[in-house]
């Protein structure tokens, strides 16, 4: 075919598409950060973010990707020899385990197969046997598998112990219901390049009063990520914040709050339903046992190279899905419906998937996935 302009569609679970208004908000004069003008912008962004965390606690801004906030959580809660519980059922639960190892904790790892979700009873059992556990590290949406863990039920168990409940919501926040205060979650960490419709570069972290006490008394070495400095400086930053990303965060938070958190959750649930109806109509099987609204992970049928298919979609058609990581590389495809996404993004994704599978020799009826998704949308009345 003749050379053709290529339009890109980001359908991976981070970074996600950024709305033009958010991009443009960043293209403004960089002002000095120690001015009332900048601090009021950051304040507005962070106060608005509280509504998205559904909390009265402050939300603090770190200049890092999401992993920086994960490291901050561990560095500020865990001392050498402290007993902690880590749920690891995929790449990102494993990251909590790696961090807790680095900080020389006495870790009890609840290790599950990729694709599985933890049962709250498993946490209860370990907590009952170990009343000296200081922190429980979990993941809302395990992005490597698409599984959502029952963090509300886990927090219900942790709340009556001395342990603090920590949740990695880097991909999960906004796509998946989470109410920090009502659910008694002590530490919520996220990154803005996923549900927040932002370019990468900012992590957000919110801590409860219970966690704040632990942070104050924690003796682990840390400097840049010492949360005491961020707590003290709020809504300002102890070090130079990413000023232009601050402008963008204010805009993104404004847009999100205009939609409203309940509507955002509902939109993500609808996109997930339509995507799943589509892939099932193609005869594909889901990988996650407890799939959430962040992404749909599908098993690649025998005889098809999933990694090659993802590369083909990205390089030839401009549609970026994520493949599998580590031992599921080539075996699953992860289709994100996260962030700045609406019905027609899902249609584009499913159409691309149909064509790529057909091209790879899989027996698919063109239009079947798209039709199934369209029916879900019409039934929902949108
Ligand atoms: C993306 C992601 C991370 C890693 O975040 P970075 O911003 O790449 O550091 C960690 N946990 C989960 C659940 C994620 O989705």
UniProtKB/TrEMBL annotation:
Pfam families assigned to the protein according to its UniProt record, in alphabetical order: Aminotran_5
Cofactor: pyridoxal 5'-phosphate
GO molecular function, one term: L-serine-pyruvate transaminase activity
BP GO annotations: glycine biosynthetic process, by transamination of glyoxylate
Domain of life according to the entry: Bacteria
Modified residues (N6-(pyridoxal phosphate)lysine): 194
Keywords: Aminotransferase, Pyridoxal phosphate, Pyruvate, Transferase
Residues the entry annotates as binding substrate: 334
Keyword Lipoprotein: no
Signal sequence range: none
Domain Aminotransferase class V residue range list: 28-326
Family indicated by similarity: Belongs to the class-V pyridoxal-phosphate-dependent aminotransferase family.
Record protein name field: Serine-pyruvate aminotransferase
Upper classification of the organism: Bacteria, Thermotogati, Thermotogota, Thermotogae, Petrotogales
């Amino acid at each position: 075919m003749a050379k053709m302009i290529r339009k890109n569609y980001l359908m991976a679970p981070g970074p996600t598409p950024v709305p033009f208004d958010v991009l443009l908000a960043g293209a403004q004069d960089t002002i000095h950060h120690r001015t009332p003008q900048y601090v009021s912008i950051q304040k507005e962004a962070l106060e608005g973010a509280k509504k998205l965390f559904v909390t009265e606690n402050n939300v603090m801004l770190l200049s890092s990707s999401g992993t920086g906030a994960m490291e901050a959580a561990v560095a500020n809660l865990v001392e050498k020899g402290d007993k902690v519980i880590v749920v690891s059922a995929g790449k990102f639960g494993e990251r909590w385990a790696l961090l807790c190892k680095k900080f020389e904790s006495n870790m009890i790892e609840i290790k599950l197969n990729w694709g599985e979700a933890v049962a709250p009873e498993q946490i209860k059992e370990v907590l009952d046997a170990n009343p000296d556990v200081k922190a429980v590290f979990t993941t809302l949406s395990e992005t490597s598998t698409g599984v959502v863990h029952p963090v509300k039920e886990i927090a219900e168990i942790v709340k009556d112990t001395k342990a603090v409940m920590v949740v990695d919501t880097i991909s999960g926040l906004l796509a998946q219901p989470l109410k920090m205060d009502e659910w008694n979650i002590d530490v919520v960490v996220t990154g803005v390049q996923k549900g927040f419709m932002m370019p990468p570069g900012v992590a957000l972290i919110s801590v409860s009063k219970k966690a704040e006490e632990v942070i104050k008394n924690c003796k682990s070495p840390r400097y840049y990520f010492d949360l005491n400095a961020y707590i003290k400086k709020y809504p300002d930053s102890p070090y130079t914040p990413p000023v232009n990303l601050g402008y963008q965060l204010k805009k993104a938070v404004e847009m999100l709050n205009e939609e409203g958190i309940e509507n955002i959750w509902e939109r993500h649930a609808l996109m997930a339903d339509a995507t799943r109806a589509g892939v099932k109509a193609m005869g594909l099987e889901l990988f996650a046992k407890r799939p959430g609204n962040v992404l749909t992970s599908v098993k690649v049928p025998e005889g098809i190279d999933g990694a090659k298919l993802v590369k083909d979609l990205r390089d030839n058609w401009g549609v970026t899905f994520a493949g599998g990581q580590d031992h599921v590389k080539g075996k699953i495809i992860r289709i994100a419906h996260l962030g700045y996404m609406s019905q027609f993004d899902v249609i584009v994704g499913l159409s691309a998937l149909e064509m790529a599978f057909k091209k790879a020799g899989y027996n698919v009826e063109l239009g079947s996935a798209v039709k199934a998704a369209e029916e879900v949308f019409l039934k929902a009345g949108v």
